[in-house]
Write a structure and sequence with these properties.
Blueprint: H1 2-20, H2 22-37, E1 42-46, H3 52-57, E2 67-70, H4 87-93, H5 99-104, E3 114-118, H6 125-136, E4 140-145, H7 147-150, H8 163-166, E5 169-172, E6 180-182, E7 191-193, H9 195-216, H10 235-251
Parallel strand pairs: 1-2, 1-3, 3-4, 4-5
Antiparallel strand pairs: 6-7
Helix pairs in contact: 1-9, 2-9
Length: 253
C-alpha cells in the first residue's frame, strides 16, 4: 500500500533526525533560550509550506511566549491556487531579491534576538534576504531545512550563498530535496511529500528542549493552555496571562 510506504518514509526521516541532529538542535535551543530568558524574541520566518511550522509553534496549545511569527501573506496564502494570490505569484515572489529586505523593515529587532528560518531547498531569495539582514542586525541565525540534500544546488541570490551557508546553526530535516517520496505507476512525478512532517518533528523536538533549558534555569514560561479539555481549571486565566505577556513583549516594555 502506498499509504504504508509514505508512513515508512516518514518514520525513517524521523529516526534519522533523532540519530543525526540532536546536537545541532541542542545548540539551536541554547540560542533561543538565551533570547527568551532576557525578554527578547525568537523570530520565525518561512515561505510557502515552510510557514506551517511557524503557524504550528505559537499561538498553539502547548507552545509558549517567546516565539514571534513573521508570516508574509502573499508568501503563504496561495490557497486560491489561481487568480488573486495564486501559486504563480507566490513562486515569483519568493525568488524576488530584495523582498526580504523590505519585509524586515516592518519589525523591531535586537541583537539579543534569534532569527529562526525554515527553508527546504535553501536557495530562494526572500529567505536569504531575511537571513542576511538578521546577521547585519547582530542576531544569531538558525536555519532548518534539507541541508545535506541542498549541497551543490545553485543559489538564486546575488550573494552567491544559500541559506545554510549563512546560518550560525543548521538543523537538517533529512527530507529528500524533491520532497515527494512515493512513486506512482504510470506517472513521472512522485506523491506524498514529507518535508512538513520533518519540519514539525524538528520544531517540537527543539521547542521542548528550549522549554527544558529555561525550566532548569528557573525561568517562568507563559504556556498556551488547553481550553478544550474537560476540567481544564483556570485555563482562561492562564491564557489571558500568556497573551498579556506576549503583548508586553511586543510593546517593548
Amino acid at each position: 500500500m502506498l499509504a504504508k510506504e509514505w508512513l515508512t518514509n516518514t518514520r525513517e526521516i524521523m529516526s534519522k533526525i533523532e540519530e543525526t541532529q540532536m546536537d545541532n538542535m541542542q545548540k539551536a535551543a541554547q540560542l533561543m533560550a538565551d533570547s527568551i530568558e532576557c525578554g527578547r524574541w525568537v523570530h520565525t520566518f518561512g515561505c510557502g509550506h515552510a510557514t506551517l511550522p511557524i503557524e504550528e509553534m505559537y499561538p498553539r496549545i502547548g507552545g509558549f511566549v517567546g516565539f514571534h511569527p513573521i508570516v508574509e501573506l502573499p508568501l503563504t496564502f496561495f490557497t486560491n491556487i489561481t487568480g488573486q494570490m495564486g501559486v504563480h505569484q507566490f513562486i515569483f515572489l519568493e525568488r524576488v531579491e530584495g523582498y526580504g529586505v523590505e519585509i524586515m523593515k516592518g519589525y523591531d529587532f535586537d541583537p539579543r534576538d534569534t532569527m529562526w528560518l525554515f527553508s527546504h531547498s535553501g536557495i530562494n531569495n526572500v529567505n536569504i534576504d531575511v537571513a542576511l539582514e538578521a546577521k547585519k542586525k547582530g542576531m544569531k541565525v538558525v536555519v532548518f531545512g534539507s541541508a545535506a540534500e541542498a549541497q551543490g544546488k545553485k543559489t538564486r541570490h546575488s550573494s552567491g550563498k544559500n541559506i545554510f551557508e549563512i546560518a550560525d546553526v543548521v538543523v537538517d530535516t533529512c527530507a529528500p530535496i524533491e520532497d515527494a517520496s512515493v512513486t506512482l505507476k504510470n506517472h513521472v512525478d512522485k506523491i506524498g511529500p514529507v518535508s512538513t512532517m520533518a519540519f514539525i518533528t524538528c520544531v517540537w523536538m527543539t521547542v521542548t528542549t528550549v522549554a527544558e533549558i529555561l525550566a532548569d534555569r528557573g525561568v517562568k514560561l507563559y504556556i498556551h493552555p488547553s481550553h478544550n479539555a474537560p476540567g481544564a481549571a483556570n485555563s482562561k486565566e492562564r491564557l489571558d496571562e500568556a497573551l498579556a505577556e506576549y503583548k508586553r513583549r511586543i510593546a517593548g516594555v
